[in-house]
Amino acid sequence: MGHLEHAAFGWLTPVLSYAMACIGAALGLRCTVRALDTTGPARRNWLLTAASAIGTGIWTMHFVAMLGFAATGTEIRYDVPLTVLSLVVAMVVVGAGVFAVGYGPDRGRALVLGGLTTGLGVASMHYLGMAALRLHGTVSYDPLLVGLSVVIAVVAATAALWAALNIKSPVAVTLASLVMGGAVSSMHYTGMIAVSVRVTPSAAELPGATAMQFVFPLAVGLGSYLFLTSAFVALSPTAGERAATASAQRPVESAAL
Hints:
The protein has one domain. It is 75% helix and 8% strand. The chain has helices spanning 12-36, 40-66, 80-103, 107-131, 143-166, 170-193, 211-235, 239-256, and strands at residues 4-5, 70-71, 76-78, 133-135, 137-141, 195-199. It is elongated, with a radius of gyration of 21 Å.
């Protein structure tokens, strides 16, 4: 069995990956709150942004954490198409969960369906990303820990969506995002503890790209997207703020007439 290292760069990758998960969760929750305050195309657009933010945050968290993953006796490569597919799956499945909450007529049923769908999307992204690993040897999993990681993902997603439905203040959403980021990170590392690798030494060149060749640049790009979108959302007035501004302008306009 190969010795596995989950934090080859010390605390750098766990802390940075947690930050990415929190940013994605915060942005997704804020966008969901904005969506629930609007109707028509605006609601759809906010929900699309929420899905892309949560999916991107989860994917970036996973692969930033994977930068610290190493196995003694073998190099590690990543299958590029599968890695990209894991990102698409994350956004599509999380999007289905977010839209279930945004448009579900029964909030309770929508929360259960959305939490289950989103949680399974998180887990699917994780294990599809793990399937993209290429190394000299075979990878196996402890089924009990895999099941626990899926449960953590579903509970975390349900709690986050509940927060979006019931918590409106920015401070409360921030706290909920910190909790969700911690839960997503816990799910990731629970899934990683489930991993064991039987190394088969070989001089053959592995297919795929190294983490620094592909995963790191893509993670930096997606992280930049999260920061820029967060700034846009933070600077965009809410429906309540727009209504307050319009109310304040009416007396001024009436006085001018």
